[in-house]
Structures are given as structure tokens and as C-alpha cells.
Amino acid sequence: MNLLIMGLPGAGKGTQASKIVDAFGVAHISTGDMFRAAMANQTEMGTLAKSFIDKGELVPDEVTNGIVKERLAENDIAEKGFLLDGYPRTIEQAFALDQTLSDLGIELDGVINIEVDPSCLLERLSGRIIHRETGETFHKVFNPPVGDYNEDDYYQREDDKPETVKRRLDVNIAQGEPIINHYREKGLVFDIEGNQDINDVFEDVKKVISSLNN
């Protein structure tokens, strides 16, 4: 079973990825893990990636694509299948992945797309507040401080402010839509309603994967 998982920040993609790996035994391939392993093992692409990172530069697509290809060529993929998480991030990377899978004789079975309305994600992601004195973290909606509280006693990190979160969501939407459309044209996309209980989301995910296994 060879899968991609996609979803906007805050949609619960990471949680569902962990559940899929635990339940179905596929190899979880995340970009961060791949980069760390390739650099630690001093593979050709890992060494090349490190040369850019050490200079504080972005790793070019061709190197990222090469690291993905190295990982997908490993023996455990043929035995267990994979869940690719965090890649492709651009339509160019999606085209490169198509070529990689073709070169390796691997077929992609499906794309699990965790869908949550962006306005709900904005509320989820921009609600975090931190107490100035204790450093305790709360959420304005989902985990507010007990009782009445003085907002002046709390602050938000720049990354958690609504305008920053909205920009991040807008970028992810702009990058993700062409990728989803690309795989939708291939009949590979399975949309999952993400704005429900985590376990209910996973029940829907399991139904999709079970149908692909039959």
C-alpha cells in the first residue's frame, strides 16, 4: 500500500499519519526524517543537501527529489509500502515524484486529503496564548485559562498571530491546490472530513485504505 497524505497546517495530518503507520505497518516517510537520515548516512544526496544547509541556503528541488528517490529505493518500501508525508510540496515536486515512482516501478495507490475549512484552521492555529510569568500555554477557545483572566498577562508568538497564520495558510493553499488537482485527475484523491473527532477522522481513513486493499 503506497500512499500520500495531504492537508493544511492544523488539519491533523500528522496525527492521522501516525495512526495509519501504527495500524497498517507502512513506512512513514517524512521530509524531515529523510533529510536527517540521508545526511547521517552520508548518502550522495544527503551530503549534497548538507552542503546547502551548512551555508544557510535552501536545498534545491533536485536534491530533495533525489533524497526521496534514494529513500523509496530502499528494501523496506517493497516489503511494507509507504506513507509519504510533507512531500510533494509543489506541483514541480509532484511531477518529479511521478517520474521517480515510474523509474522505480512503484504504483501510487491513493492520496488521503484531510480537509478542514481554512477559517476553522485560522481559529485553531491563532488561538494559542502564553502566560508571561509562568510560560504556560493555553488556547483562547479550546483550552482557555480558568476563570476570568487579564489578556495583558498573556502574549502570542509571532507565528501564532492571526495575520501570520493566515499568510501561512494562504501559501499552503496556493501550493497545495495544483497538487491535489493533479492527483484528482488521476482518480487517486480521497477527501476526508477533518473537522470531527480525531478517532472519527481515522475511522473514515481506515475505510478508504481498506477499500484500496480489496
Q: What would you say this structure looks like, in words?
A:
Its EC number is 2.7.4.3. This is Adenylate kinase. ATP binds at residues 10-15, 128, 137-138, 196. With 214 residues, the protein is of the alpha/beta class. It has one domain (2-116, 175-213): Rossmann fold (3-Layer(aba) Sandwich), CATH 3.40.50.300. It is built from nine helices and eight strands. It has a five-stranded parallel beta sheet, with helices on both faces. The protein has a three-stranded antiparallel beta sheet with strand order 6-5-7, with no helix packed on it. A hairpin with a 5-residue loop joins strand 5 and strand 6 (137-139). Helix 2 (31-40) crosses helix 3, helix 3 packs antiparallel against helix 4 and helix 4 runs parallel beside helix 6. The longest helix has 24 residues, at 162-185. The mean pLDDT is 92.
